[in-house]
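I hope you will forgive my troubling you with a question about protein structure. I am sending you one protein, given as its amino acid sequence and as whole-number tokens for its backbone shapes. Thank you for your consideration; the sequence and its tokens are set out here:
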Amino acid sequence: MPFKATSQESIFRRGNALTLKMVIILLLSLTLFVIDHRQHKSHQLRVWIENAMLPVHHLIDFPRIFSLWVLEGVRSQDSLQEENASLRSKNLLLQHKLQKQEAIESENSRLRKLLNASFIFGTVQKDDKVRLAEIIAVDLDAFNQEVVLNKGSRDGAYVGQPLMDATGVMGQIIRITPHSSTALLLSSPRHSIPVQSRRNGLRTLAMGTGHPNRLSLRFVPSGSDLILGDTLITSGLGGRFPYGYPVGTVHSINAEEGAQFSEITLTPTSLLERSREVLLVWPDSITDPLQ
């Protein structure tokens, strides 16, 4: 029993001591609060403590800031890649539209020239009828020099029909189907056309050479009155090509001494390698069956 009494007294003593300490700490805290509120004595102390703890705060916050920086960098890179891909796509579309616009403008220019061809060639063809056709295939090897057109017998085309572009005669149709036709160009070695000089009326025959930019005049006597730059037009002989359409201009004259004939080359006035839209011609003596 004495042992139990002693233990209870010890517990009561420790409890009284803790209570007293708490009261003292509480009073001291209240006193400091009142003094700080009235005289602001602890402001400088707080500033010192905050400055001292600032590196610790940065160190503690560093993992969060670093993770945000990494995530932002990844998002920025993905955003830049998406933006770059979008800009490339828009640029490609704009380039495509620009190319198509240029092609349309070029085609419109060619069509205007074709529609005005009768004015370019003069009034001698005012009674001839023409119709627009498009080249859909080409065979420009040295021997053939042929093109395929999107007009055929159902459109009134016929074998032997003259073919021209906005600047001159191109050739004539040699084969035909209901929906297409094949034309032989002036430049083919298999093609010949009666021509005459616009300046002096000298008549001769222009032959293809296999080269798209060269024709050859045959049977021109040495000493003939042809000069460089003379224009050769269709003579109308043979009845296939109507009179007056430009064929070529004199490019070179080689008249050897003692030779009976001169070697003369022409440059075709038509754009044999470049024309895409052409005109089919119905001479005045031939009626267009679709008219």
